Amino acid sequence: MDFFLRIRAANDYRNYRTLPEAAVNHPWWKGEAPDFKRPFRYGTGNALLPEQLPQHASRELPNTVETVLLALVAALVAAIVQPSLLAPIALFIAGVLVIEFIATTVQSIKRKAKTDIRVYWYVTVLRLSHDLGLLWGNLRRGRIEGITRRFNDNGTFRKSNLFRTNTYKIVKWILYPLLIWAAWMIYTSA
């Protein structure tokens, strides 16, 4: 990343242009077998970038793995303080994972991925592996403040991506309120 950012700075921070006919033939690791350790390690490394290059870092809403962790912490507290909250929290965690799959599927379809449930599942697990690595990279260094801190890998200096939109986030913003409503309905009906 440092190399990319130095070249971009030397180019007066102008964006790179894509070359549609450019192609790279990259050999597969593990003989084309699924490998979730690599995205996990990328995530662990990406957890270092906001600290090392803070001018390119910003806060975002928690990703799926961070949201599940926060919900699990809430479940531990609820188990002691208000056990009736455990069912809605469990629904919330399950719903967060389903919403992740739906959002990733919609984004994959938009990007013209092969229409195959196995592809959508694989892309979802890849994203979750990366995000788990991101969380682990922060937790193992005791950097709780690193949770929700992201590196802008496009080289911009934008300070807040909290409301940056893309298809993936829009789908989540539509489905999360429905999930919270469903969890609330379970809680109030108990």
What does this protein structure show overall?
- By secondary structure, this protein is mostly helical.
- The protein has one domain (2-189).
- It is built from 7 helices and 2 strands; from the N terminus they run H-H-H-E-H-H-H-E-H.
- The protein has helices at 2-10, 37-46, 49-52, 64-81, 86-110, 117-139, 167-189, and strands at residues 57-59, 149-151.
- It has a two-stranded antiparallel ribbon with strand order 1-2.
- The mean pLDDT is 83.
Strand and helix map with partners:
Blueprint (H helix, E strand, L loop, with lengths): L1 H9 L26 H10 L2 H4 L4 E3 L4 H18 L4 H25 L6 H23 L9 E3 L15 H23 L1
Antiparallel strand pairs: 1-2
Helix pairs in contact: 2-6, 4-5, 5-6, 5-7
In short:
It comes from Chitinophaga pollutisoli. This is RDD family protein. By secondary structure, the chain is mainly alpha-helical.
Helix content: 55-70%
Structural class: mainly alpha
Number of helices: 7
Tell me the number of structural domains: 1
Q: Could you give the order of the helices and strands?
A: HHHEHHHEH
Biggest sheet strand order reads: 1-2
Low-confidence stretches: none
Largest sheet data = 2 strands, antiparallel
Cα-atom radius of gyration: 19 Å
Q: Shape from CA axes?
A: globular
Strand share of the residues?
under 5%
Distance between the termini: 51 Å
Fill in the keyword field for this structure.
single chain, mainly alpha, two-stranded antiparallel sheet, 7 helices
